[in-house]
């Protein structure tokens, strides 16, 4: 398609938009090949932006609801549920299954989101570059689901009561668990150094979670899900090419499920 003529006819800068469309087409082709994006954007940056945007919306909603700026540091439980937090009675009784994904984009204050986004910024790009955008999306969303499922079992059989769960840490532990098993299989000094770094980081984070009363069941669920994916993801080019249709489909489903969940969350506000 002649993008330059198309945008020129709309009274826009056809040359500029032609280059943009060509870059987007290349990114789409890279996505379908299981590679990373070209240019400035990446899945990690999109996830960072989405988390920060939704946190900002939650703070604004709290302020408009008469809570002032307290939501910036200590949002109320009701506000966290309103912002997509995982609360299983609403999932089971009201069929709000979208919470199984949206909870991973809700955070309980500035310190909480700052710590999680720092971890995502530090370890996400390396894994995304290694396995490609669609596999990375699949890893991130599937480990959010494995985290909340183990958290459900923990609340049902051990705690005997329901609590609200929020935060990207289930997916972050998924990235860590994946890195441990995947880079162990890769082998070599650099890969094993990164594996050992992730092992130390996970141990420290679990102990810290015990101290502050975090959802360590969810952390374990995310880590186990990520570790399993790290064990089965092919290392060689031939294996990845053979499984490309499967991961393309999984990645597409994860993207659609995430968009749908966030839209349903926003729809629940009205």
Structure description:
The chain has 270 residues and is mainly α. The chain has one domain (46-267): Up-down Bundle (Rhomboid-like fold). Helices cover 77% and strands 0% of the residues. It has twelve helices and no strands. The chain has helices at 3-9, 14-32, 43-67, 77-82, 88-94, 99-102, 110-131, 133-159, 169-186, 189-212, 216-232, 237-267. Helix 8 crosses helix 9 (169-186), helix 8 crosses helix 11 and helix 9 (169-186) runs parallel beside helix 11 (216-232). The longest helix has 31 residues, at 237-267. The mean pLDDT is 88.
Separation of termini? 40 Å
Describe the main β-sheet briefly: none
- Strand percent estimate: under 5%
Q: What portion of residues is helical?
A: over 70%
Structural class call reads mainly alpha
Instruction: Provide the number of structural domains.
Output: 1
Text of the CATH class? Mainly Alpha
The succession of helices and strands, N to C, reads HHHHHHHHHHHH
What is the CATH superfamily classification? Rhomboid-like
Number of helical elements: 12
CATH topology: Rhomboid-like fold
Name the overall outline.
globular
Put the structure in a nutshell.
This protein has a single domain (46-267), classed as Rhomboid-like fold (Up-down Bundle). It is built from 12 helices and no strands. The protein has helices spanning 3-9, 14-32, 43-67, 77-82, 88-94, 99-102, 110-131, 133-159, 169-186, 189-212, 216-232, 237-267.
Key features of this structure:
about 270 residues
List the helices and strands and how they pair.
Blueprint: H1 3-9, H2 14-32, H3 43-67, H4 77-82, H5 88-94, H6 99-102, H7 110-131, H8 133-159, H9 169-186, H10 189-212, H11 216-232, H12 237-267
Helix pairs in contact: 1-2, 3-7, 7-8, 7-9, 8-9, 8-11, 8-12, 9-10, 9-11
């Amino acid at each position: 398609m002649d993008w330059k003529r198309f945008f020129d006819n709309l009274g826009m800068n056809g040359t500029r938009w032609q280059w943009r469309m060509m870059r987007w087409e290349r990114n789409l082709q890279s996505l379908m090949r299981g590679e990373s994006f070209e240019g400035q954007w990446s899945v990690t940056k999109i996830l960072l932006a989405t988390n920060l945007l939704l946190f900002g919306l939650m703070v604004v909603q709290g302020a408009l609801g008469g809570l002032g700026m307290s939501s910036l540091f200590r949002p109320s439980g009701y506000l966290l549920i309103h912002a997509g937090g995982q609360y299983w009675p609403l999932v089971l009784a009201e069929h709000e299954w979208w919470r199984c994904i949206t909870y991973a984009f809700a955070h309980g204050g500035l310190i909480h989101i700052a710590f999680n986004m720092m971890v995502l910024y530090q370890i996400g790009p390396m894994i995304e570059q290694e396995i490609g955008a669609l596999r990375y999306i699949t890893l991130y969303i599937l480990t959010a689901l494995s985290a909340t499922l183990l958290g459900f079992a923990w609340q049902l059989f051990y705690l005997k009561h329901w609590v609200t769960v929020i935060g990207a840490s289930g997916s972050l532990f998924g990235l860590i668990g994946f890195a441990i098993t995947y880079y162990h299989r890769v082998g070599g000094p650099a890969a094993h150094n990164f594996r050992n770094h992730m092992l130390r980081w996970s141990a420290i984070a679990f102990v810290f979670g015990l101290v502050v009363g975090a959802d360590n069941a969810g952390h374990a669920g995310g880590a186990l899900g990520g570790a399993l994916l790290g064990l089965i993801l092919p290392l060689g080019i031939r294996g990845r090419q053979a499984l490309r249709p499967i991961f393309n489909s999984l990645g597409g489903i994860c993207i659609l499920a995430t968009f749908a969940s966030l839209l349903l969350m926003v729809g629940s506000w009205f």
